[in-house]
Amino acid sequence: MKATHHGAIISAGLLLGTGLGGFVDGIVLHQLLQWHNMLSSVRPPVDLVAMKYNMLWDGLFHAFTWLMVALGVWRLWVAGTSPEVPWSGRTFVGSLVLGWGLFNFVEGVIDHQLLGIHHVHPGADELAWDLGFLALGLLQIAAGAWYIRAGRADTTPRAGLHLGAPR
Amino acid sequence: MARLTTSRVSAAWAIPLALAVTVARPALACPSCAAGIEARAELWSRDFALHLLAALVPFLIVGLACVYAERIGRQRAASARAESQIIPTRSSDDALAPSAGAHASRHQGSHGP
Fold this sequence. Notes:
The complex is a heterodimer.
Chain A (H helix, E strand, L loop, with lengths): L5 H27 L15 H33 L8 H26 L11 H25 L17
Helix pairs in contact in A: 1-2, 1-3, 3-4
Chain B lengths: L1 H27 L5 H12 L2 H63 L3
């Protein structure tokens, strides 16, 4: 019998990809570059109170990304202890990239385009930045899906797990 | 010697003084400052639920994608398990067939002309 339950490792990768991608977003865009703050179009961070208000919302965003990472670690642990789950690096990395891209795309469509609560780089060219962000998300989704597909050939469970052994 | 003692005394005074300054400073600085208090008050007053939903929805959508992936994976694993249970039965049938044939031929052979 082959390990064919790719779903568990894909799920772990999606959660971890979302969480780690969210941290890249939060650290690089929000904190280092000081763009893309959570409610910067609702309350532009131009004075100390507005900056602190955005900082609070950025903190909530980071709390959710932390939660995704924690859930991802849990699912990865479950996947690693199941003999039905193939321990495939390609599936896992593909899922990480897919999760990151899916999150960027969904966040871009909802928060940037539909609700307009913030933009990637607020200002004159904000639409161009937002579209670039969406394009990057789609590219990540395509690359991740392609790598997951390549990982379908991997059917060996994690070393030390024997198929059919009682759990 | 007297100089050393004096420096010891001043060091002994310097530690509580530094501690007092360290403790006193945050009282004047944020998060207890006016800007911090105002920002925290605004958090609840300005469409909190809508903004929280906006922040949460992308995470929830990825979460749903994970649930879907796990479900599909489980279904595929179940069908693969079912196939692997069928295949040995077929192979055992196949394994039986030649031996049965051989047995039959042996049987025929023994009663042959």
